Cysteine/Histidine-rich C1 domain family protein
Amino acid sequence: MWEECELHFHVDCVWHPTELKHPLEVNHPYHALHPLKLLTARFPDYSDGKCRLCGSKIDDRLFYHCSSCNFTLGLCCVLRPPQPSLLNLKAHDHQLTLLPRLDSFTCNACGLKGDRSPYICFQCGFMIHQDCLGPPRLININRHDHRVVRTSVLGVVNSVCGVCRQKVDWTCGGFSCQRCPDYVAHSKCATREDVWNGEELEGVPEEIEDIEPYVVIDDNTIQHFSHKEHYLRLHDNGLLCDDNKRCCELRCIFPIILKRLGASQKYCCSPYCANAMSVN
């Protein structure tokens, strides 16, 4: 750092300036109208300080800029620009084309908003963030007890993300639990560094833990794995729920026996379901 003017330099740029010298102007394929000029000072007041292609905030004060179009690129996207088109991706079946401009959109892969340079499918209108192109397929997250799997359409109406607790667009992709039909999560939320350990589990056998379906409290009382909040008591006076009601959460096919467990809580479970169900 040069203290008088508060400029920062990479170590390699200080010790090897000739090898890493950048041209003062470049003609870039994603901005053919005008050449981009190398700037080392502060961003112009009208600029948002982000790379037009990848959206990364540019902190090193070394970037290329077109003042006529307010078009800015970081060094990485100048030296290694994203591919103009992509094919044979897990994220989508058709060819995707980069749209290098500011454009508000909803990513079909994660359901979240974007503001620039998506990849778009002109065949079906599919749009995707650049960093959503290669998400993991099967992962463990610290916000749920089971593995979650990547899906292209969540399909769970009126659902909320299990990580951020915000509404999820059920027509878009994300992560869901194959054991808990209502559990979903945004792709970006599920793959956050504080949520996911970075390990892809596709092809890795799952370690299955056998758990007893219930714990006996006394002769007429159990604690069932699906309802640990309250005890369940055997009710044998012949009072049955109507035919449309089934075992809470488990959806068994047998009629259930009703027992009031407190002033406001009701919970039912058939004897068959209590004995037959187990957790895998």
Summary: The longest helix spans residues 271-276. Helices lie at 11-15, 75-79, 187-190, 271-276. Residues 208-280 form one domain. The CA atoms of residues 56 and 106 lie 18 Å apart.
